[in-house]
Specification:
The structure holds two protein chains of two kinds.
Chain A: H1 13-16, H2 24-40, E1 66-67, E2 104-113, E3 123-128, E4 153-157, E5 163-169, E6 174-176, E7 182-184, E8 187-192, E9 201-206, H3 225-229, E10 234-235, E11 246-249, E12 252-254, H4 259-263
Parallel strand pairs in A: 2-11, 2-12
Antiparallel strand pairs in A: 2-5, 3-4, 3-8, 6-7, 8-9, 10-11
Chain B: H1 21-24, E1 40-48, E2 58-63, E3 88-92, E4 98-104, E5 115-122, E6 129-134, H2 139-143, H3 153-157, E7 162-163, E8 169-170, E9 173-174, E10 184-185
Parallel strand pairs in B: 1-8, 1-9
Antiparallel strand pairs in B: 1-4, 2-3, 2-5, 5-6, 7-8
Classes of the chains: A alpha+beta, B mainly beta.
């Protein structure tokens, strides 16, 4: 059985642990204190300067971004089509000779802009850990088993109504080295394109009711609960495939102007 | 008068995390133009943190006009055919924080200063940041540029690539510090 092997380098192991390795309770206190500051003055949906997420300390910009009008190239976006992605790439359980272990799920939803317009023919990329919480990545040293039947990467292009659909298995939570006994809530990474390059978005989809939410500095880098809630998938019982898979719904809304915005379409 | 359409609240960004390579890499992703094809140059540089240390787990994406100033509309950024110019490229930094694209220099659109539009993601960045890379030696149109004309000299320098002796472009991105790159919001 060939084991998935990735050649691209990523962070050397030594960089992944935080310098101070605080306790979980300290991180929870820091999250609460930072939220209190941020909720006083409404700002970005996701706060880049969020110290409880230790690796952000030296990597977040220290100055506010310059608010400007986009130029032409920023109001357009790379074009994708069916030619770019094979249908099989949206089924993460069918990429190997056998069935992966874990809870088989579907994740489907609609990609729209903030005016509710569906974004058709846009690329959606996902990646995730396996059911045991292990990533197929040379530098993931979490001593949980790799699954020879699961890589955990998929792609789809949205249809004419902006819809996408993946079949996969539910990822497990996994430990990381932000603080002592740190565990990420189970999540699937989503990367999407919009009609404009300014709408480009990478985010994470979570599962409802995860007990790790309150403990996780990454999830909490979004200061407002109502904003965090939009990253939690809905369990949709009626969409289950009986005796086969559980269904989750996850709609994605990209922000920012595009070319038609400035041309005054549908005003 | 019609009522303003209901606003759909946007999805917040989250960090790309450390283990994105297996999900986002694809063959030729950094080859916006086929290497060594006519007009092809490299655009490369280093992404650095607040200590000046290279960031080895960043992802940079660029989108730019073709050399004649046309906005690319062709599909095929993912399955490259080696000749279609789609304007889009993706590069991951290596252990030295270094990224590299093969591309063509964007031409001016409607006489305005050309630049590469840039989105940057990294482990440790809770969301993405956006910036631009302008071309060197274009002081006239840059002076008229809506963004550049508002910036101090020191800030402008963070957005302009350097030309190497062999004609390629070099551009470093600094997340913090004296040379902190100017980042943008729209």
């Amino acid at each position: 059985m060939s084991r998935p092997h990735m050649e691209t380098p990523a962070a050397p192991e030594s960089l992944l642990a935080s310098a101070d390795m605080p306790s979980q309770s300290q991180i929870v206190q820091e999250i609460a204190a930072r939220h209190a500051q941020l909720l006083d003055s409404p700002g970005a949906l996701t706060e880049l300067d969020f110290a409880p997420y230790r690796s952000s300390l030296l990597r977040h910009p220290t100055k506010s971004p310059h608010l400007i009008d986009p130029e032409t190239i920023e109001l357009h976006s790379p074009a994708f089509g069916e030619r770019d992605v094979a249908l099989i790439e949206s089924d993460l359980t069918a990429q190997h000779a056998g069935e992966p272990l874990g809870e088989r799920i579907t994740v489907s939803g609609t990609l729209t802009d903030t005016r509710g317009r569906p974004l058709q023919h846009q690329l959606v990329e996902v990646w995730q850990a396996n059911a045991a919480g292990r990533y197929v990545h040379q530098r993931d040293r979490h001593p949980a088993p790799l699954d020879p039947h699961f890589t955990g990467a998929g792609r789809a292009v949205t249809d004419s109504q902006g819809r996408y659909r993946f079949t996969t298995i539910k990822p497990g939570p996994y430990p990381w080295k932000n603080h002592v006994n740190a565990w990420r809530p189970a999540h699937i990474h989503f990367s999407v394109f919009g009609r404009a390059f300014t709408q480009r978005l990478i985010t994470q989809m979570y599962f409802p009711g995860d007990p790790l939410f309150a403990l996780d500095p990454i999830y909490n880098s979004i200061p407002r609960q109502q904003d965090r809630d939009r990253l939690v998938a809905r369990y949709i019982h009626d969409d289950n495939v009986p005796e086969f898979s559980m269904a989750y719904g996850f709609d994605i809304v990209v922000d920012g102007p595009d070319a038609t915005w400035f041309e005054g379409e549908d005003q | 008068m019609t009522a303003a359409p209901e606003r759909h609240e946007p999805s917040p960004a989250q960090t790309i995390g450390p283990f994105f390579a297996f999900g986002l890499q694809y063959p030729g992703m950094n080859e916006v133009a086929h290497p060594h094809s006519p007009g092809a140059i490299t655009l490369s540089g280093t992404v650095r943190d607040g200590n000046g240390a290279p960031i080895p787990d960043a992802l940079i994406e660029i989108f730019g006009a073709d050399a004649d100033g046309s906005v690319p509309t062709s599909r095929g950024s993912l399955k490259r055919d080696g000749k279609t110019f789609t304007g889009f490229g993706r590069a991951m930094t290596d252990d030295e924080g270094h990224y590299l694209f093969w591309t063509r220099e964007p031409g001016a659109i409607d006489g305005r200063a050309p630049f590469f539009a840039v989105t940057l993601f990294a482990r440790g960045l809770p969301g993405h940041v956006r910036t631009r890379i302008y071309l060197p030696g274009d002081s006239e149109s840059v002076a008229d540029d809506a963004l550049m004309s508002r910036l101090a000299e020191r800030q402008r320098e963070t957005l302009v690539a350097m030309r190497s002796d062999d004609g390629h472009l070099r551009h470093d991105i600094h997340m913090q510090g004296e040379r902190e790159t100017v980042f943008l919001d729209f």
